[in-house]
């Protein structure tokens, strides 16, 4: 393989890092790494099963059956630059996955590929993870018996088709600091995040970025955040649709009564159709800024339930049809000027 044509870039001839290369001009091959203990790739430059010109990405399977997987560098199963779909990347570890640098990518000029990460004991720590496609987006699924911490962007955008799927399920807390993109040129995709904590001073789900599952010409997608111990969100949530709006679910469960705090906009509007749905349900208090579920024809639905609800605006008008519904249920309700 001409390394200069590699989707992840040429190898630095002076690099002391290790490289595992199963790329192919007409499609990627397969890489399997399995250990009864840990996999410590502390000086990894590149682990690559991508297609180079034509063809789909291959497969990368990395399993640390008795310990941790600690990875530095890029891991790829991309398609070729001309044609093909993204490949499949699976990383599993008994005691946690730490991706400290670089990116994990199964992106494609066709449909995005699949990325799966699972731990049965420790945490998952990630930077950038991608499975976007020029047609449909792919899927990124992570499940952890501990916490999940994402310090980069997560992208399953479908440029001309439908957005893909992002799913993060943590038995411990979840923290995200980047952009989560499951938007699509046609319909939006889906984003699910779940976390849990017994600490009454911290939220189970904390995100300080943007979540976007909007659809371009079609319908908005689905955003579902569930915090067993509260949700704190410091960014915007979009499930807009060029036709109908999507669905946004924000649910707090558990005994902590931490509540739900939203410091920006939640938008499930439908530009040329009906507004979508915003459903917020907390055992504690709800603090919200702007909730939008308006429609170019009919309005959508907004429902907020909490011990106390403090918000700026809730808009569910129908521009050319029937207005939607806004239902606020709480012991105390405050309308705030932000």
Can you describe this structure in just a few lines?
The chain has strands at residues 18-21, 30-35, 39-41, 44-48, 59-64, 69-71, 74-76, 88-93, 97-99, 103-105, 114-119, 124-126, 128-130, 139-144, 148-150, 154-155, 165-170, 174-176, 180-181, 190-196, 205-207, 211-212, 222-228, 231-233, 237-238, 247-253, 260-262, 265-267, 277-281, 286-287, 290-292, 301-305, 308-311, 313-315, 325-329, 332-335.
Question: Explain this structure to me?
Answer:
The protein is mainly beta and 338 residues long. Helices cover 0% and strands 43% of the residues. Strands 1-4-7-10-13-16-19-22-25-28-31-34 form a 12-stranded parallel sheet, with no helix packed on it. A 12-stranded parallel sheet has the order 2-5-8-11-14-17-20-23-26-29-32-35, with no helix packed on it. A 12-stranded parallel sheet has the order 3-6-9-12-15-18-21-24-27-30-33-36, with no helix packed on it. The radius of gyration is 21 Å and the shape is flat. The N terminus is likely disordered.
């Amino acid at each position: 393989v001409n390394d200069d044509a590699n989707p992840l870039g040429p190898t630095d001839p002076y690099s002391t890092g290790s490289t595992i290369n199963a790329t192919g001009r007409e499609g990627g091959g397969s890489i399997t790494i399995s250990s009864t203990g840990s996999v410590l790739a502390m000086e990894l430059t590149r682990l690559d099963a991508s297609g180079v010109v034509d063809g789909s990405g291959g497969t990368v399977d990395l399993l640390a059956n008795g310990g941790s997987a600690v990875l530095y560098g890029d891991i790829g199963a991309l398609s070729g630059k001309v044609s093909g779909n993204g490949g499949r990347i699976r990383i599993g570890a008994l005691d946690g996955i730490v991706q400290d640098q670089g990116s994990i990518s199964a992106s494609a000029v066709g449909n995005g590929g699949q990325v799966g990460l699972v731990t049965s004991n420790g945490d998952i720590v990630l930077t950038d993870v991608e499975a976007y496609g020029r047609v449909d987006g792919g899927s990124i699924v992570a499940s952890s018996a501990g916490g999940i911490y994402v310090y980069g962007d997560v992208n399953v955008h479908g440029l001309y088709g439908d957005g893909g799927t992002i799913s993060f399920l943590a038995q411990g807390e979840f923290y995200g600091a980047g952009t989560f993109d499951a938007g699509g040129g046609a319909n939006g995709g889906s984003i699910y995040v779940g976390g849990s904590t017994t600490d009454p001073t911290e939220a189970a789900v904390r995100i300080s970025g943007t979540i976007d599952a909007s659809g371009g010409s079609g319908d908005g997608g689905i955003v579902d955040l569930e915090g067993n111990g509260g949700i704190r969100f410091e960014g915007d949530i979009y499930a807009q649709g060029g036709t109908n709006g999507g669905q946004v679910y924000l649910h707090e469960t558990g005994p902590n009564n931490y509540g739900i705090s939203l410091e920006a906009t939640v938008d499930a509007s439908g530009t040329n159709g009906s507004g979508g749905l915003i459903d917020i349900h907390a055992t504690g208090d709800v603090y919200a800024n702007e909730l939008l579920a308006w429609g170019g024809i009919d309005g959508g639905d907004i429902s907020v339930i909490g011990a106390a609800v403090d918000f700026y605006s809730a808009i569910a008008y129908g521009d050319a049809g029937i207005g939607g519904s806004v239902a606020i249920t709480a012991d105390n309700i405050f309308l705030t000027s932000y």
